[in-house]
Amino acid sequence: MRGQHRRKNGPVASALSPADVRAFIIENLRLEPVPGLPEIRLYAAHPGSGLGRLGASGRDDSPPYWAYNWAGGILLAKHVLNHPNIVRGRRVLDLGAGSGIVGIAARKCGASAVIAAEIDANAIVALSLNAEANDVAIEALNADILSGAPAPDVDVILAGDVFYNAELASRVLPFLTSGRQAGVVVLIGDPRRSALPLTALRLVAEYAVPDFGVGSGGDATIGGVFALEA
């Protein structure tokens, strides 16, 4: 799921116009329920999608993470749907939003506002389409908010699969820690990837979910939802 903050660089421009990306997604991806979460439908890749024609945001090293169901996003979406009071009436940041699954779940559960932050311009188009398909409103933010710019004013940060590697973790953890110290609730969904800072986290819940992350072919894995300690 996670397209945000994979590199140190800033926002990744698309090789195509937003209108062209939107048309491509509608014509070539399948709008279907998320595995295990029939409440949410997303445009998802399949063997005949031809995603290479989309241009991978204009870079050979920028896979379309937003077109697949990553464990971290499914974990958080499932947890929020099971416990809607986490977000009800609150302002939420979906960090590294990818497909937008987490923000969509939050809005379905009554979040007053959701900001979906993503560096991939193609993902911005995809998550906006996914929000429309689920009849929710999400503010898409195409920016690298780990770069030192002022963080959005929110009550809750939901971050799925943002501890992808050590370099990424070194940028994400200070951002999340700063938010937590300011009183923001921080929840992380992760299938315990190697860079996850477990010593700074408290396990809140575990779920069996499919994963299309590194080294996985979509098989089920037991992942966790973690709270960042103050």
Automatic annotation (TrEMBL):
Pfam families: PrmA
GO molecular-function terms, A-Z: protein-lysine N-methyltransferase activity
GO biological process: methylation
Gene3D superfamilies referenced in this protein's UniProt entry, alphabetically: Vaccinia Virus protein VP39 (3.40.50.150)
Keywords: Methyltransferase, Transferase
Source organism (scientific name): Rhizobium grahamii CCGE 502
Domain of life: Bacteria
Cited CDD domains: AdoMet_MTases (cd02440)
Name of this protein: Methyltransferase
